[in-house]
């Protein structure tokens, strides 16, 4: 039987020596202050055995990883009607390109790029009475952890500098693919990105994606078909224009965020989260990707 | 335990009634003559139990499905040096676009689009004494079936009308990413596409991709890491600009060809091949995609 | 000697019979109410002889034609430093594409597409104490006509529905190519587009572009090199992705607006303005383009 | 009255001191051997007065400048039917991009990019008994100079390395926009590019474009409308993705070639040709562009 604890400790110790840890994201001022030497990893297996190494208890900004969680909430709420407003193909392009949106007449290429996640946010704003609170409740519920919260300073920092997202939302509006007020939708979106969690909490949240839709407390949030689709989207679209490379090197459905986190799952086996704030040139956590490549290589486990 | 035979028979009978079976490819004259009502499916499980329905014994032109087999042969021959000349990202574009090739200075986006497969062909021509014969031998070996052969009429038909591929090869040459003579490489490429197999033979060939690199006669052709990578490429790039949709609906690594075939695998579980000559607007077998979606939905099995 | 009066009357009467007059712009609600049968033309020659036909005295919204006037004011104010923030190449693309802006890192392709004109507006806002009033003054001065004014209803209508321009301005801001507050710049931009003039007034305004920078009252606003450059930009970029066609058919530097106006000049010879609210599929006045093609063909006059 | 001789001598002497003369084209081996210090200029005015400076009598490869001459021959032969197979818009893109051709389904953006000129060549091959000889005759006739000839070594050099043009021709063929055999059309095309002329001969050839279609011996080759259109195409499309810049800085219709030549005209006034083999990064003669900018600035003459 695999000794996950030993494996992730070896990985953590191997990566300590890596000199080029990537570059901490600077475009959100609040995020630029993080220590680039932080590294955490947490793996929870199907039987809820837990394995940790490094800074796995330290909170970080989940940023784009939140897109998978908002998609899950949205899919559970409204079902397949989402796909009338968002496509499901990989973008093959950096994460913030509006070009695709124009070429495709306001239909985002997939729900894990910014434009797609803004449409998901719009659907949630349309369907929830109190969108921010109810979305946070959802995350607290699937993690069974009421301590999880927004970092208002980060949300505020994004609002003040998020011109690219404001551009995307207005472009969606110009195509009729944003139903609510631009500011209201972006307020929700900037908050979802500004949720803080640690590796353990995030691995708990992603447990449902490796467990056919059931969270750790046994409640079913998504059916098996919906989980298949969300995992497929993570695999084909979860790493911007490096999605192919992640599938190729790691072989797990996953999602990265510019806060340095990566969450990934091996269905029926485990959910795993890494955190290392330095990003590679494509905007994904440099050491996080290496850690997960080592994990699937050392364990000979992947979806392939 | 799952009754695959019953399931695929139900699928075959359900699909018989579908009126819009798509459009048979017309750009290769030899292929345009096929009866659009043909439908075959063959599944071989990990224990080499076999399940068939419909026209599973009828030969068809494997076309682009051959790209997975030439990639396998090439990867086994030269290892990771392939990736200096070909990228591993989904194209998000129709299968014959040269635009990407220009934007990316002659490095094909992945080995499963035409330009990438032509570079793979170039590497094989460089590394094999008798490329066509040796590639055919490889296929005969992994299927344990010496009856498999090129259809020379189809190869000839492609050579006479394959202006787009001639353009791609010359463009690669202009970027220095084609080492051999254009005509020689294309002669190999047109032949690999013109191999004829039936659903059973092709499922036998793909057995090694679900069996960690070992073919049915027990010989190891690829290591576990190489198989992970080829399966990842099938999942992210196997269906042109419909790759996301196939992952999303079906959830299996697979590859389609304009001859109407689709080969797919569920690692450790099965290899499956469908054949239905009518294509959808994106160039993939219309009923084949539906059959595989039904298979993974009815069995609740997929890589996700 | 050419009898301009006879020629433009013939043109006006010939065009009266044309059945397909194009489609009145509907995306700005205030503009959608205009009668599509309106047609006016006014030509002023180098000696200030004037020739009119049709509805040449009726006010219309000059819209994008204002981009030439704001560029002139800006060029006169700050000189060649404009070209550090805006390029001078034709876009070969529809008038509202943000894609180019991304591909070119926030440097608009030229000052006559929306993104470029928004940067021009930003420069004016930076350099004028009272931007809207002073820009209007400039137009009143070069036309010697104090009756010219903004239509506040149109400006307001654009502000409420101008999501695409809001997107463009925020995208410019995200690249650091917009120095002032987005709302302030757009308020100026929506007002400059909402200026109302008739064919005669607009021909008076464009007189300076055919007269080497000197307006009708003899004041020099631009030097000969600046006028060469503005005329070159009109010729290569004045008609969105139909610029080549306008140069080819008409052979004059000119600029169109979605209000249905077109202003054009033949250096040393004349300035001419047409107005017909119906647009062709590329967003340019359908009959206006035909009228000007007839004018240069009948007179055998063009810059070529 | 302007003293053209003095002006061009000053220009030639001013440019002698410029250190960075650009880079001689290396992709056609035969052209890479040219001395980068060569500089010639020849201007012929409407009255056939001639003004020369520098190496104006030295032969060079006219390359893409030939596209204007083949277009003229083709337009004279078949009239407006050309425009069913070629568009008239600027490309806004480097001179060898196939991407546009794909996006626009095999219709080249204009006749002055390679793909467009290959379609022009195809039309000439279809309509001339002896295409190469008859095209050379046309050039000998409009220049009244029988010494003009192909450089077979250059033609051969291009044939052996012209993979990008072979790609373009095959792509056109795949869209049905090339009627003759690919090799036959390219043989013509490589020969037209390989014509050698000196500045004086080329200025003589372009005299007809400033003289409403009449060559120096008084024969009318094109009507006034056709000349307007060819000049418009030179202005909007004659310098690849630097066309806007040339219009903006120089203000004349013109065409460059990678051999280092530029031919330009001021209708009713003059035809001028410069030759300096060093190219800028956009593939246009570096000193040639500067010389023409100085010419129109010093003379205050341009079409604008």
From TrEMBL, chains A, B, C, D:
Keyword Metal-binding applies: no
GO biological process, one term: glutamate biosynthetic process
Enzyme Commission no: 3.5.1.2
GO molecular function, one term: glutaminase activity
Reactions accelerated catalytically: L-glutamine + H2O = L-glutamate + NH4(+)
InterPro entries with a match to the protein in the record: Beta-lactam/transpept-like, Glutaminase
Quaternary organization: Homotetramer.
Name the record gives this protein: Glutaminase
Species for this entry: Maribacter polysiphoniae
């Amino acid at each position: 039987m695999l000794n996950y604890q030993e494996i992730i400790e070896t990985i953590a110790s191997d990566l300590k020596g890596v000199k080029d840890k990537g570059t901490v994201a600077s475009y959100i001022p609040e995020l630029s202050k993080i220590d680039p030497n932080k590294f955490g990893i947490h793996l929870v297996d199907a039987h809820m055995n837990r394995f940790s190494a490094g800074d796995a208890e330290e909170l970080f900004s989940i940023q784009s990883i939140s897109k998978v969680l908002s998609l899950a909430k949205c899919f559970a709420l409204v079902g397949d009607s989402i796909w009338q407003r968002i496509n499901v193909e990989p973008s093959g392009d950096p994460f913030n390109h509006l070009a695709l949106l124009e070429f495709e007449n306001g239909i985002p290429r997939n729900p894990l790029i910014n434009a797609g996640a803004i449409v998901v946010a719009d659907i949630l704003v349309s369907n929830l009475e109190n969108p921010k609170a109810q979305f946070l409740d959802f995350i607290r519920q699937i993690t069974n952890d009421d301590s999880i919260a927004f970092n208002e300073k980060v949300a505020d920092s994004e609002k003040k500098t998020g011109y690219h997202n404001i551009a995307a939302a207005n472009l969606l509006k110009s195509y009729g693919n944003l139903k609510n007020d631009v500011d209201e939708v972006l307020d929700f979106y900037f908050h979802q990105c500004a949720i803080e969690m640690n590796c353990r909490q995030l691995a708990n949240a992603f447990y449902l994606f490796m467990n056919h839709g059931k969270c750790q407390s046994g409640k079913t949030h998504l059916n098996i078909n919906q989980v298949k689709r969300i995992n497929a989207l993570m695999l084909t679209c979860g790493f911007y224009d490096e999605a192919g490379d992640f599938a190729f090197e790691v072989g797990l459905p996953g999602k990265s965020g510019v806060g340095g986190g990566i969450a990934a799952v091996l269905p029926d086996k485990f959910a795993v989260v890494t955190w290392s704030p330095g990003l590679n040139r494509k905007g994904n956590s440099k050491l996080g990707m290496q850690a997960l490549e080592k994990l699937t290589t050392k364990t000979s486990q992947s979806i392939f």
